[in-house]
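A quick aside before the break. I want you to see a complete sequence-to-structure record at least once, exactly as it would be stored in a machine-readable document. Don't worry about memorizing anything.
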Amino acid sequence: MSEILLVGLGSALGGMARYGAGLFAARFMGLGAFPLATFAVNILGCFLLGFLGGYFAKNGADAKLALLATTGFCGGFTTFSTFSRETLALFANDFYALGIFYVISSVILGLIAVVAGFWLSNLNV
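That is the input. The structure line, written in tokens, reads:
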């Protein structure tokens, strides 16, 4: 049961961080049609998940801490459902090229971010 509570706590913290990032992006970056806040959060979340996964694997971290940080926080921080809704909205508003760019760049940069995070966590610096 404690694992469920850890995931819930991590998810709540991740969701609050995502909301704060969205407020920051809306206030300081001017979003226009492109959903920059979700894009940035998802790429950052991919990097963080790769980094934490690599770090925990390398250092044998506590399983509960890993669950809180990866499944909980990263799961609550990133958002596939919002990404999907925003993509649909771009298409519905005739921003077809921007929608296709959003999907392709999110997937490719997300994968690159996971690999980069994992690689960075395994450097012997």
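Two observations worth writing down. Residues 2-28 form the longest helix (27 residues). The radius of gyration is 16 Å. We'll return to this after the break.
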